[in-house]
Amino acid sequence: MTLLARHFERIKRRLRAEGDAARSFQHGLNRGQIREAFIREFLAQNISDLWGVGTGEIIHEKASPEEARPQLDVVVHNKKFPKLSLATGIDLFFIETVSSFIEIKSCLTKDDVRKAAAATKRVKRFATFPPQRLNPVGLVKAPRPYSFVFAYEGPKKMETVLGWLKTIGREDEYGLDSLKATEPNKRFFFDHSFIDGVFVLGRGFVVLDALPFQSHIDRGIMKGLPIPPESVWVYGKGYELLMLWALINQINACLLWNEADLNPYIGPVPLLIDDSP
Known about the structure:
- By secondary structure, the chain is α/β, with parallel strands linked by helices.
- The chain has 8 helices and 9 strands.
- The longest helix is centred in the N-terminal third of the chain and has 19 residues, at 3-21.
């Protein structure tokens, strides 16, 4: 076990203990909010200071006051750009400034995954691609934001979660058919509207093969393993915190030099010109 893997195993034990401590609260909403706070704290302590971790809603340049928007438990955003803060600690984030968002669940169910998929599609359909003039990685389109689900408890086997994702992915148009038709070595940063990964504490993870590094499936095919090229899912038993940490930090690194243009949000502002001498 590497130093990082051992480090995150220790953090896993701490998160499990903190999650159990939240059971002291009678109301399920309070327990959920406390567990969300634990994950936000974990991320804030383990990502670059250039990125912030908050909670709230993501808006786009064409958003209207009446538009229904999902409330997101965790939002990772670029601190170079502003956010709109409310007194309650709930913020509005500009979609161009967000790298990823996470839904936190106490005990994951299939319906939780289905709801997270619907929320992901509502957010991702307005994702844009700001230029990254100072970053060579910016030459590649980077669909954003990335969507993850983290659960303190869930099925005993990650194969069950994998089955849920495959079933739900067929219930709506999320772009997964196009992903399957894409060669594995060309999938990173693939533009789709589905969940990018699910992580269950103490169980493992399931991720789509469209992440910002070389395809695991492509590497397996190159090694001669009998993997169908249309496979798009990768899962692991254990190492869920290490994988989540690595993914978010890699995504952040690839998006660090975005140059978001917030002018479209302002809209037409009536101005009067003083033409007096």
